[in-house]
Please model this.
Amino acid sequence: MNKAGKAPTMKDVAREAGVALGTVSKVFNSIPVGESYKIKVEEAAKRLGYRVNSYARGLRADKTYTVALILPSLDNPFFALLADHICVALTKHNYRMVLAITKADPHAEARCIRMIEQNMADGVIGLTYAADLDVNENLPYVSIDRFIGPNIPCISSDNFGGGQMAAEKLVSLGCKKPLFLRIGSDVPGETDKRGAGFVTYCQMNGIEYAAQRFSDWQGIESVYKFLDEHCHRGKLDYDGIFCSTDLFAYHVKKHLESIGVCVPEDVQLIGFDGLKRPETDEFYCSTIVQPIQQIAETAVYILLHGASEQFPGFMSLPVSYAPGGTTRE
Amino acid sequence: MNKAGKAPTMKDVAREAGVALGTVSKVFNSIPVGESYKIKVEEAAKRLGYRVNSYARGLRADKTYTVALILPSLDNPFFALLADHICVALTKHNYRMVLAITKADPHAEARCIRMIEQNMADGVIGLTYAADLDVNENLPYVSIDRFIGPNIPCISSDNFGGGQMAAEKLVSLGCKKPLFLRIGSDVPGETDKRGAGFVTYCQMNGIEYAAQRFSDWQGIESVYKFLDEHCHRGKLDYDGIFCSTDLFAYHVKKHLESIGVCVPEDVQLIGFDGLKRPETDEFYCSTIVQPIQQIAETAVYILLHGASEQFPGFMSLPVSYAPGGTTRE
DNA sequence: TTGTAAGCGTTATCAC
DNA sequence: GTGATAACGCTTACAA
Model:
């Protein structure tokens, strides 16, 4: 130890190695210096337990190798998985991730952005709900699942295609009258396109269909009520349902069973997300699978390679269908 | 905008407000200055969109209001929830959280610590597996679920008490020959005490019991094999099982049912963790519930209040029992 | 109370 | 290739 409790600096290393400060800096920045000097510096550094202070470096270079991720929460497995993959992808690129959790509160979201603008990060990946998030023009930002503005890249699954795929699948599995059901936030977002894709497919193919949207504040009970009203003597008016998320599909399924409608015998069900049960690694239901890892890696790539010019402002990644026991096949 | 693309500095604000640099600094540090100056500064700052640069501040003050969390992954709901609560707790204290994911790889863990030592954080909360993690003495560190050394506070649930509680519960529910089953990492950790508590309770109360431990590398099949060997003509040698985790209990239950043993009729099952299914918010099984939020808040509190002296080096938080359908009550 | 100036640890620019 | 020296943006004595 050289000075009680204080971390050693480049100066200390220089003194210890008997070289000039600048030489030490070069060694730690992989700028060529004489081999003998390099060795002296490295040994001195190891002896002192020296680590470069990235705040000082960040101050100088205006680059911190830190990216912020803004997420509503981690108690939803989709978000948790997304955070996991994004963190791993960032680590691969030698970046750190600071995580901010907003509980979907627009105030908290704004506060986060503000915080990050304090040079805490080189860029931001955000999955936000604020309708009018204002992000500084010169803070690189990539949005997930929500289109913020023409200059801000947005990554999401191919929600529209997934909706079409779900409709097509239900029809090809024999459904004559499919239904789309969604419940969620009132803030418009990319995920709304799931329903749009479904509807478009049905219309273009002359399929008789229905679509019903609920808001979070109405509660899932309103969905149950809707189902009850469309169930006559144990028979539902629809023979296939596309639900906007897997977890929602799970509840719909449970409710249908509770009123005597069998899944998939009477009604086939397709969800969206591709979540797996933690305990068995099985899908909750037949589902349109989001490529979470690819979303994460794409977001990181676009953010770090400042590719907002070369890439379209909006990018949708291909989804796939996976059977999960709520369809007949 | 004042200087193309570059963020405004205190100097800019000072010029804009027509005051001295130091005055601006004081305003942003809540150090009293004349009211009229304060207003001038605040208005100038708003006009310029000024944000204090926390790297410069950190460099000066050697304080960054950032805490690092080291976690194996986020794809386990227990870890995800822990991260969520820790992040929220830190935010409440005006701290940021940088997250590092290690996939339980000791190399990655060491790399993280090294990274954090680069003054990237004021402290660390770690849930690690490296047997010999060496953390710098002057980097505040709080460990979760693993005792690292006498000078490093460790927070965990009362694993021992939980083990006792599970045994007691099984016995009070009528079990005559309970079994403890665990599968997990070979690295010793606090969670090993779950079995110890179970065994101690049985021994102290003269209960006939058994305990079997498996390592991750043996695979869950070895557990199944063990159960098969102890099942004779549809009857298991044990009438109660305490499993080291909820997810593990789930698998044990499924396997028992597959060989014709009914839960909870023939065998009662208690797990550990208190995880809830994402889809229904119900427990996976009867379980000893870990106080995740309290663990998170305690870890944060101890880390931030540098209370390592006042607090015991080791701290265990009370668990509770919750029925979840795999016990008879 | 306000303004000035000296660092914090690093990097980059130049003469040597 | 090496080694002083001047920034980077902010805090904090200390002087006015």
Summary: Residues 9-11, 21-22, 25-26, 28-29, 52-61 of chain B lie near DNA strand D (CB under 10 Å from a C1'). Residues 11 and 283 of chain B are 57 Å apart (CA to CA).
